[in-house]
Amino acid sequence: MKLSFNWLLELVHFFGSVADLESLLARAGIQVKSVMDWGISLKNVVAAQILEKRPHPQASHLAVYQVTDGLQSRQVFCDTKKDYHVGDKVPLAFPGTILPGNVQVHEDKLHGITSQGMLCDARELALVQGTATDRRPFTLPEETITGTQISEMFPPDSILDLDVTPNRGDWLSHLGIAREVAAFTGASLKWSATLPTTVTVASNNLVAAQIKNAAGCEFYSLRRIQGVRVSESPIWLRSKLESVGVCSINNVVDITNYVMLLMGQPLHAFDAAQVCGNILVRLAHDGEKFWDLYGQEYSLTPGDMVIADERGPIALAGIMGGRDFKISTNTTEILLESAAFHPGKIRCTSCRTRLSSNASYRFERGVDTTAIVPASELAKEWICKVAGGRVQTPIVVDGAPLVATQVTIHHGRTARFLGMDLDPIKISRSLERGWLTLLRLSQESSSWKIPGFRRDLTREVDLIGEVVRLIGIEAIAEKRFAEPSPTTQADVVMDFCSILHQRFAAQGFFEARTHTLVSDGLFQNLISESETIRLRNPSGEDQSLLRPALVPALLSAVQRNLSHGQQTVRLYEIGTVFRRGAKEEVSSLGIAMMGLSTPPSWRGRKTRLLDLYDLKGVIQSMTQELLHFVSSTAAPATRIPITPLSLEKNLCLHILAESGETIGVAGQLSPHWSRKLGIPGEALVAELWLDPFQRGATTVRRKVSAIPRYPAIVRDLAILLPKKLSYASILETLLSAGEPFLCSVEPFDVFVDHTGLKFPLYLKSIGVSLVFRSAERTLTKQEVVIAEKRLKQRLVRRLGVGFRDPPKGGDGNDNI
Prior knowledge:
Blueprint: E1 2-4, H1 5-9, H2 18-28, E2 31-38, E3 45-55, E4 62-68, E5 73-79, E6 89-93, E7 98-99, E8 103-104, E9 108-110, E10 113-115, E11 118-119, H3 150-153, E12 157-163, H4 174-185, E13 209-211, E14 217-225, H5 235-243, H6 251-263, E15 267-271, E16 279-283, E17 289-291, E18 297-299, E19 305-308, E20 313-316, E21 320-321, E22 334-341, H7 343-353, H8 358-363, H9 372-387, E23 396-399, E24 406-410, H10 411-418, H11 424-433, E25 437-441, E26 445-449, H12 460-471, H13 489-506, E27 510-511, E28 517-518, E29 545-546, H14 551-563, E30 569-578, E31 585-594, H15 612-621, E32 628-631, E33 651-656, E34 662-668, H16 671-676, E35 684-689, H17 690-698, E36 713-722, H18 727-735, E37 742-751, E38 763-772, H19 781-799, E39 802-804
Parallel strand pairs: 13-16, 27-30
Antiparallel strand pairs: 1-12, 2-12, 3-4, 3-6, 4-5, 6-11, 7-8, 9-10, 14-22, 14-23, 15-22, 16-19, 17-18, 19-20, 20-21, 24-26, 25-26, 28-29, 30-31, 31-35, 32-33, 33-34, 34-35, 36-38, 36-39, 37-38
């Protein structure tokens, strides 16, 4: 809905700016999507009168005009297509004027004849829409005073694009918005047209109208207007319509659109000469054909409402007229329709045929049945003015306007619902400002007559909402009605997911959102048919089943990123996966990464590819629980997430919690499988069940301590141990010793002697740094030596390891 600010000011006393109006409409519940400028703000374009006209002696396409601007006479030549006549009053732009579109007016000279300005048409002044070939003459009213600024006649305007909610059809008109402005400001309306609201049915009309389906049409009216002269609309009408986005057609059609934009009641005019017999408002016959105004053919169904004569449909009710019945320059008699159709019927037909119009948009939201006759009367008056029509027969109607709704509101209940003190007088005054009519008032309740344009007010709760809307929601005092609810399991899950998001983002990961419905191809050979959950009626082959895992779709996203030139990709997703079984919906965490561990640098710093240890580190960083990564052959038999890692030739590890429960899988795809998936490299993937992963993570509480005041002492150990023994066993042995001064253990070197000269082939050497520190004092060397000796004895006793002379640095093999 486009709203003209100037047009609104013609209907209501409002003294604020456009910004003030935006704020007021926001309070009323109407969102303003945008504001556009329209009209003329130029000060050197005036009304001039043509005194003389003659052809240009050297250019047949030009005419030379002698005009007066009220102060002096000027000579101007102009395109003959504009076809002005002596005595016409037209806009004249002086030399130096810059017209819309950055067109500059100069004092030109052609074949010895000087032009001292430019005679402008409506398109050149941006008063109407049109093309460069549109050169229709633009003449001003005869009563225009010569020398008047055109900007005074067509002042600058602001066009507001409103986002109207479906329940407020009354907002789809300038009068409806004017009522809202008056309700919220207490101002009065300027629009006070006295139009009849009832009619006397005559029996001697030239045409009759009858409703055959009362469920689809509530009220129908028709009137005949004779002697019309169809032509171009006057500029004021054309400018008004086109400023709010409605194209000008001709003076008759434009008047029907003008009344619709003013009052919100759609109208339609038929060429009476093409109508055969009486008018019926009925349901369409199955397969009945209809051609719209643009010649498009539609096959109708029995659910469609049509306006028909004796030969067939002449209009699709409430949506669009027929091709053979439109108003043209040959039309001399019209039938003017004003009606109310059922919103549901119009909406169904519009959706089925995909045919929409300004009329159907309003009928779908409901129109005011009490405005049907007034809108017809107003359109009749304007058509007689601008098209010279005359009315000799009265209006014919069938059906009746809706009976006004009456709703009772209880004052005490209103105050309780809104949580504020409201006396009956304040409630009554607010509803009266909202155009409701008071029928009965008592201390406990009041009864109200609902105006026809407020079809959304049907219950007491609707009136309560109207009270708070008109008073202002800011008037409700802030109160505390309840204590905060205890933390639920859903809150715990959300908090845990928020922590995961933060930690993944801190490590350079991006969150992915893949589709819940996936293709069979993603899970070929990965899951048995008995475990999949398929859709009975999928919209396509690529959405045939609910995803049983996250990783396959993440790998597709990795491949897409790499194909667009990304060197490193780190993606994760938290979502629901679906598999048949005891629990068909499970929350899962998917991870996929590949590329460089650090970005290349001009400093020449060496970089490496991401490997399985990086993936293990990412997973372990998500929780303080110590996870165990074991080979798939050594893992207990349990239900694990579905990934390509389960296929042969891939490095697959099962992730175990401290309790021994399998919570996921992690690993590296072999080059063979990476190439098969279209990934140029070795991808690292993991998928974990979120629930057990979360249970382990939430049992640990982070400890915050002050920055150490005393220095640390570092001791290095070079531990010899069998290759099959993991570093995790060393770490667990050292940390479980309960040594009071041991702060941390960090590995810095791993060495295997493939020659067997320095130590046997079945052994490996791991260098670790032991960090000792006291929070109360500086440790002595003797204390650290004794603590180190106890730890070495524990390693020997529990793991049977040996010791070598420690390397002098942490650079690996070069220090052996």
